[in-house]
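Field reference: "sequence" (input) and "structure" (output). Example, NAD(P)-dependent alcohol dehydrogenase:
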Amino acid sequence: MRIAAYHRYGAPEVVGVEERERPEPGPGEVRVRVQAASVGAADAAGRSGSPWFARLAFGLRRPRNPVLGSDFAGVVDAVGPGVTHFAAGDRVFGATGAEGGAHAEAVVVGEDGAIVPLPDDVSVEAAVAICDGAMTALPFLRDAGRVGRGSRVLVNGASGAVGSAAVQLAAHLGAEVTAVCGPAHVDLVAGLGAARVVDYTREDPMRAGAPGAPFDVVFDAVGKATYRRARAVLAPDGRYLTTVPSWTILAQQLTTRLGRRRAIVRFTGLRSAEAKRPDLEHLAALAAAGEFAPLVERVLPLDDVAGAHRLVDTGHKAGTVVVTPAPEYQEA
């Protein structure tokens, strides 16, 4: 089978297509023919070995696992002994987590892992966009931000995979949302359910007295703001949430625990499979019902995986970049 592999850290060109023997599922495992996989910020960090914390996960001197990709969607084409929840021909989607391996024509996962049935009304491209964006946004908003009806939420980076999901999910939870993005995506973000959209090139959304402030939650979905800036628009008991760890935010998370305002960073990808499965099912149901629309920036063939990485590296994509290792289901 074909895989996208890399053996050293560097620019997008270090990733290329290679051949590898197709894996066989063992006891309690299923093999999925991967029709779509996301290429996201974590993959770009793993490929480049930057920022500093990426090498803690991917390998200090060289990549520990040559095949990136956590989010996958496709069709089960083989099951191992003892599997009871899935059968060959089932449409499924999920995430492999830190193990990666989804940038390949097939991936083997445990049936007790973060894998669930994919509703017929949800495309494989939308499914991996759910994993790429909404599976980060939902626990941040619901658990760390405690967003609910009447909450005031500012989403910074509202056109990205996580940010676009956060705008929709915060609105779904009953919040009044202010969405921040660049000028190229204002119209797109305006259609996601935000009460107001701020073009950051024309207006500072975190100045004292900004429209919509004070906010109960400032969700920095791209790690471009700071807790220090956000304090100007946070409510007295507000929470600043960021997806990007740094020494500063880790220290602020500790030092703000005794105050009413909080700075919070979470590693949502490290949650257990037991915690992820209900969220995958919930988000897929919302997508199937038309209550949530995962954004897809572009769909590229596996042969152009380097191009997918280059697109992610621009930092200006709208939604999720998807590669298609096995675009059409075929019997192995």
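The chain has a mean pLDDT of 94.
The domain at 2-130+271-324 is CATH 3.90.180.10 (Quinone Oxidoreductase; Chain A, domain 1).
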